[in-house]
Design a protein that fits this description.
The structure is a single chain. By secondary structure, the protein is an alpha+beta fold. The chain folds into two domains: about 130 residues, Jelly Rolls (Sandwich), CATH 2.60.120; about 45 residues. The protein contains eight helices and eight strands. Strands 1-8-3-6 form a four-stranded antiparallel sheet. A four-stranded antiparallel sheet has the order 2-7-4-5. β4 and β5 form a beta hairpin. The mean pLDDT is about 90.
């Protein structure tokens, strides 16, 4: 498979020359991940930035009471990783687990930093990714704090309609900050209306 999906992804933003494509081939490594396998566990340093070619992942943390809280899902053509741990080199407080069998392309921090220096186009592309992620995070944080659970569920359904066949209700409930039972009540209420 190599890095064709990643090249296509980048070229939606800016065309790449042969040298840039060759560099991607050199530094991104393909990994096949089985369902329920982790690519990051709490306490480990996030050493890779991961691009999802196939499959679905969840990023979550476990609170002091042992309860899991989903922070992010990632499917094809999305990036996933603990950016704080990746850049600081400090142990992560997060876990990233495959919900489905998956294929990812990973780049090491030092290779990514070298890529930014040697190929400034990628620096621009990743800056746009980061800005978009911050805007999305800001909107989601606002929605979580200013909306009812029902409104959050409707917003989630509208933004990610293809997630419902891939992610369990338990995982969605965790992401929305409600119990699975409460989510079931919301879904029944919306089905009647």
């Amino acid at each position: 498979m190599k890095v064709e999906p990643l090249i296509a992804y980048f070229e939606k933003l800016l065309p790449l020359d042969e040298e840039e494509k060759s560099y991607l081939e050199k530094v991104f490594k393909e990994r096949k991940i089985k369902r329920r396998q982790y690519i990051l566990q709490e306490g480990d340093v996030c050493k890779y930035n991961s691009f999802v070619v196939e499959g679905c992942f969840r990023m979550y943390f476990v609170d002091d009471n042992g309860k899991e809280h989903n922070l992010q899902f990632a499917v094809e053509n999305w990036w996933i990783g603990d950016i704080g741990s990746f850049h600081s080199g400090e142990p992560s407080k997060l876990n990233i687990e495959a919900i489905e069998n998956a294929v990812i392309l990973q780049i090491k921090k030092e290779d990514q930093l070298k890529m930014f220096v040697d190929f400034p186009k990628f620096n621009r592309i990743f800056r746009v990714f980061t800005e978009n992620a911050l805007v999305k995070l800001s909107k989601e944080s606002f929605t979580k704090h200013s909306s009812t659970a029902e409104e959050r569920y409707i917003d989630f359904m509208e933004r990610y309609p293809n997630f419902f066949n891939r992610i369990s209700n338990v995982q969605i409930a965790s992401y929305l900050g409600v119990t699975p039972e409460f989510l079931s009540t919301i879904r029944k209420k919306l089905a009647k209306s």
